[in-house]
């Protein structure tokens, strides 16, 4: 039997901005946009296992309400009628939230997470939920409840994680953009693996609000998309201070409503890089092992930036304290979130989650205080660097998309990995700084596997970061290469 032909329409590869504009103009209804997306899921998802929860009737009711609102002349949000699946671990009222674990198979939140509430307020139509690793632990999307999500560019390879289901769906034309979250690279690594953009915002840009822990900081909500402009569009909808969120940054989401994001400089690609002071390193001055295929792509980026008029040097901040900060804070977060499940259902919880939770429970006061002191030194190091630089440009992932049948790469360029966190350090050391960071497509290996580059800016400089990322995107055009399914 020959494979089922893939559904592809004139809507499939539109950006989120383009689709929202067509719906607002009455050229396409919200119901038509949703049906088109569901048809694409029907023919793509069997190859990828990206979308794991659907309720088509509920989604169609949502789309029909959007169309009725528009027909009555109601005010339209910037994302009115746009269908979107959401990361499975994110709370969406009325949709189950399992975190990839059978222990939570019947969990149905009554309230939207803040980021979802803001997307709904902007007009998004929820159409399903995308796969995650069990309890979002690790950057490879597999679990015993839903199975493994694979990469659209090579379906024997990982789509990364933990926002891997969303990334695969975006790359495969299911939707142009979507939400996710990033503790140790869970937006940036899937971005690199799937040839899309993945942004971890500054701490507090999309705040945590009650009833969630409003002081949580290591994991951040954020977005992925096929273009930087669409990430900016979603950031505009979801950012800004909130009640019950004391760690909020004060600026409203409107700071992302820049004309450059809506109308890129097609006549002068890369102009936004001119004059920027950029520190560049493929391996953080030897701190990271990097696969040769990744290095060969990322090494070319320095020349691209310089040719565009940026001032590129090899200066980088001292990030040696970042590992301690990341590992201790992550362990504390796991202990806070999963200690009861590990205590009561240890045999039903993935070994890596048990390990990380028990690390947190075993921490001493001295270890916690040491990590706090390390975080202070890390802040001083990054502030010192950004006093003289606009950007830090690094490898997004130390490896290419790996065999989807393994848990994680056990060696990188001959260096053994001591645990499942070690191979993600290109992302985790940046997470520890609290700086905004974005992965942007940088090229492909000889075998056609995507490789991303990571741009990092000073805390709070999210808009400037996206403007630089868009300039690189315009200049290179790597994001235009689609997978062949």
Protein model, in words:
Helix content is 37%, strand content 15%. The chain is of the alpha+beta class and 485 residues long. Helix 2 (30-48) runs antiparallel to helix 3, helix 7 (228-238) packs antiparallel against helix 14 and helix 10 (322-345) crosses helix 12 (365-386). The longest helix is centred in the C-terminal third of the chain and has 24 residues, at 322-345. The protein is globular and about 60 Å long. Residues 55-81 are annotated as: Disordered.
Strand content is: 15-25%
- Count structural domains: 1
Over the alpha carbons, how many angstroms does the gyration radius reach?
Answer: 21 Å
Sheet with most strands: strand arrangement:
8-10-9-16-17-13-11-12
Would you tell me the overall average pLDDT?
97
Structural class: alpha+beta
CATH superfamily: Amidase signature (AS) domain
Named at the architecture level, the CATH assignment is: Alpha-Beta Complex
Outline: globular
Low-confidence stretches: none
CATH class reads: Alpha Beta
Characterize the largest beta sheet: strand count, sense, and whether it forms a barrel.
8 strands, mixed
Helix content: 25-40%
What is the number of helical segments per DSSP (H or I, 4+ residues)?
14
Query: What's the number of extended β-strand segments?
Result: 17
CATH topology: Amidase signature (AS) enzymes
Distance between the termini: 17 Å
InterPro entries: Amidase (IPR000120), Amidase_dom (IPR023631), AS_sf (IPR036928)
Organism: Microbacterium marinilacus
Protein name: Amidase
Biased composition (Basic and acidic residues): 55-72
């Amino acid at each position: 039997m020959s494979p089922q032909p893939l559904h592809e329409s004139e809507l499939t590869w539109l950006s989120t901005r383009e689709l929202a504009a067509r719906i607002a103009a009455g050229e396409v209804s919200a119901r038509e946009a949703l049906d088109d997306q569901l048809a694409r899921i029907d023919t793509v998802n069997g190859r990828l296992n990206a979308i794991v929860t659907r309720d088509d009737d509920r989604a169609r009711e949502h789309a029909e309400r959007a169309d009725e609102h528009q027909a009555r002349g109601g005010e339209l949000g910037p994302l009115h009628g746009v269908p979107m699946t959401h990361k499975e671990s994110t709370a969406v009222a009325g949709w189950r939230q399992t975190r990839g674990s059978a222990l939570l198979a019947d969990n149905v939140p009554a309230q939207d997470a803040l980021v979802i509430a803001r997307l709904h307020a902007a007009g998004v139509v929820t159409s399903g939920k995308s796969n995650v690793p069990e309890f979002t632990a690790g950057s490879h999307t597999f679990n015993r409840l839903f199975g493994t999500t694979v990469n659209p560019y090579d379906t024997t390879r990982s789509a990364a994680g933990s926002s891997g289901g969303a990334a695969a769906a975006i790359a495969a034309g299911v939707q142009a953009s979507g939400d996710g979250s990033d503790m140790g690279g869970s937006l940036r690594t899937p971005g690199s693996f799937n040839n899309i953009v993945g942004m971890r915002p500054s701490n507090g840009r999309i705040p945590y609000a009650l009833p969630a822990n409003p002081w949580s900081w290591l994991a951040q909500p954020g977005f992925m998309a096929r273009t930087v402009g669409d990430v900016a569009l979603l950031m505009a909808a979801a950012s800004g201070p909130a009640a019950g969120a004391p760690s909020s940054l004060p600026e409203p989401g409107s700071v992302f409503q820049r004309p450059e994001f809506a109308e890129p400089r097609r006549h002068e690609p890369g102009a936004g890089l001119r004059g920027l002071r950029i520190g560049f390193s493929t391996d953080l001055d030897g701190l990271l092992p990097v696969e040769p295929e990744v290095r060969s792509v990322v090494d070319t980026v320095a020349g691209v930036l310089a040719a565009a008029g940026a001032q590129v040097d090899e200066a980088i901040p001292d990030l040696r304290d970042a590992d301690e900060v990341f590992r201790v804070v992550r362990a504390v977060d796991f202990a806070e979130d999963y200690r009861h499940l590990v205590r009561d259902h240890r045999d039903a919880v993935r070994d890596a989650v048990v390990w990380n939770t028990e690390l947190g429970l075993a921490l001493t006061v001295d270890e916690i205080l040491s990590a706090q002191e390390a975080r202070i030194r890390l802040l001083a190091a990054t502030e010192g660097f950004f006093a003289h630089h606009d950007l830090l440009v690094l490898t997004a992932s130390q490896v290419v998309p790996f065999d989807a049948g393994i848990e994680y790469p056990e060696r990188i360029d001959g260096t053994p990995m001591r645990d499942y966190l070690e191979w993600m350090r290109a992302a985790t050391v940046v997470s520890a700084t609290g700086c905004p960071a974005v992965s942007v497509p940088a090229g492909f290996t000889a075998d056609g596997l995507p490789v991303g580059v990571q741009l990092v800016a000073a805390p709070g400089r999210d808009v400037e970061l996206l403007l630089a990322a868009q300039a690189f995107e315009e200049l290179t055009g790597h994001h235009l290469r689609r997978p062949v399914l």
